[in-house]
Amino acid sequence: MKLAEDIIIRPYITEKSYDNMADGKYTFIVDYRAKKTEIKNAVEKLFNVKVLSVNTINYKGKEKRLGVHLGKTAKWKKAIVKIDTNPQPETYLGKDGKPVTTGKKYKTEIEEFGGVQ
Question: Residue 45, Cβ neighbours under 10 Å: how many?
């Protein structure tokens, strides 16, 4: 099992990803072999938020040339994570059939995301 710190490499900040933060969508560069469920669990563990969905994009490495030398850039994966910006308390039926409400302590935004407020 991979650690959450190994799955999330760093935040990916561009103009488009910065605009998506208002909708609760945060963009990360993640481990290329990570699956969506692993990314979801890692973000929930690291930032104490409730993840609603994860979309991933794989980027292949490009061939680059510097003079006569030919090389290839690394392949990488980008994950767009949508978090719950309005967490509601959960209600379920208890043993005696009475409704029981539990208040979830989730954050509504990720403050540590690249110094963005």
Answer: 14
Would 110 be classed as within a structural domain?
Answer: no
**CA end-to-end span of the chain:** 32
Which CATH number is 74's domain given? 3.30.70.330
pLDDT tens digit sequence for 97-111: 888 777 667 777 787
Write out the residue range of the structural domain in which residue 42 sits: 4-102
Of 75, 110, 106, 111, residue with least CA distance to 90: 106
For residue 20, the SS3 value is helix
Residue 57, H or E segment: strand 51-59
Cβ burial of 113 (10 Å; 0-12, 13-18, 19+) is middle
